[in-house]
Specification:
8-stranded antiparallel beta sheet; flat; 288 residues; alpha+beta; 4-stranded antiparallel beta sheet
Length: 288
């Protein structure tokens, strides 16, 4: 009898700390600002003299993330343990990332070494997109954060070796990025080229602005001379995306974010709905 009572008590405690009882969730609402091309003023695809350039915001799956390998060591009961860990860093978190597509259908080759993308905000001050010549630093603040965290958690790690590993991973990552700004080379007649356009700051800091590409120089392959310079510009504006968390009756642990209208956000974000899960009916029920 005592054994049965003890088993029931343990089961009761387990249910209390797990999910045997009703599970309560409050719906979360968020409003996110982002920059989009204002196609009411300038189209995303622009064609001048048979050279087309398309500019669009990168989605989350198109933004590269830095993967680093870190060899760490720690002590436990007078023994040294080691591990090779993989870490992923969202290195461009807070940056503005675009995808640029060049389509050269002209009879000319495009000499790309002299052009630059820049953003001119409402204050009139130009900011240039990053390129591989102005991003030669072997270190990044997010690397410093990871380095300090690992050194704190793994007390026997070789700090000099770890710093070299992180630095080399970052250098390789930047070297392999297909940045569109400041590439040295040609986009030959009849070919296409795509790459990343990255600004170091969130363009959502300003309500409107202009992304420009300047000094695209076309050269004639036969006589190797400059023929003309074409300028492209895209107007930008702020756009707001509204989302809320969604619950699933068939899986009470599953939560996803879904897009909603501005009206739904405004009507609910101050007083979000709260639900409890009925294990008998296997349904989320709104609390009154």
């Amino acid at each position: 009898m005592k054994k049965i009572t003890l088993t029931l008590l343990i089961t009761f405690i387990f249910c209390m700390i797990s999910s045997c009882g009703p599970r309560v969730r409050t719906i979360q609402y968020v409003k996110q600002a982002s920059v989009i091309i204002d196609e009411s003023q300038t189209p995303a695809m622009q064609i001048i003299n048979d050279v087309g350039i398309e500019l669009r915001i990168a989605n989350i799956y198109e933004i590269p993330k830095l993967s680093v390998r870190a060899n760490v060591a720690w002590s436990y009961k007078d023994k040294i343990y080691t591990d090779a860990q993989e870490h992923t860093i969202d290195i461009f978190n807070g940056y503005s990332v675009f995808i640029v597509n060049f389509m050269n259908k002209s009879k000319y080759d495009l000499a790309m070494g002299g052009y630059r993308f820049l953003f001119i905000g409402s204050n009139g001050s130009p900011d240039y997109a990053i390129n591989k010549t102005n991003e030669r630093s072997p270190w990044h603040p997010l690397l410093e954060n990871l380095f300090n965290k690992l050194m704190k958690n793994y007390d026997k790690t070789d700090g000099d070796k770890l710093r070299r590993e992180l630095s080399m991973s970052y250098a390789d990552f930047m070297r392999n990025l297909q940045l569109i700004n400041g590439i040295n080379g040609m986009i030959f007649s009849g070919t296409n080229y795509s790459g990343l356009l990255i600004f170091k700051f969130p363009l959502s800091n300003t309500t409107s602005g202009t992304i420009s590409i300047r000094e695209i120089v076309e050269t004639d392959r036969q006589i190797a001379r400059i023929t003309k310079t074409d300028n492209y510009e895209w107007r930008t504006r702020l756009s707001y995306n509204y989302q809320k968390t969604r619950l699933f009756n068939e899986d009470k642990y599953k939560i996803v974010w879904e897009n909603i209208s501005e009206n739904e956000y405004l009507n609910n974000y101050r007083n979000p709905q709260t639900y409890w899960y009925n294990d008998t009916t296997q349904q989320w029920i709104e609390k009154p």
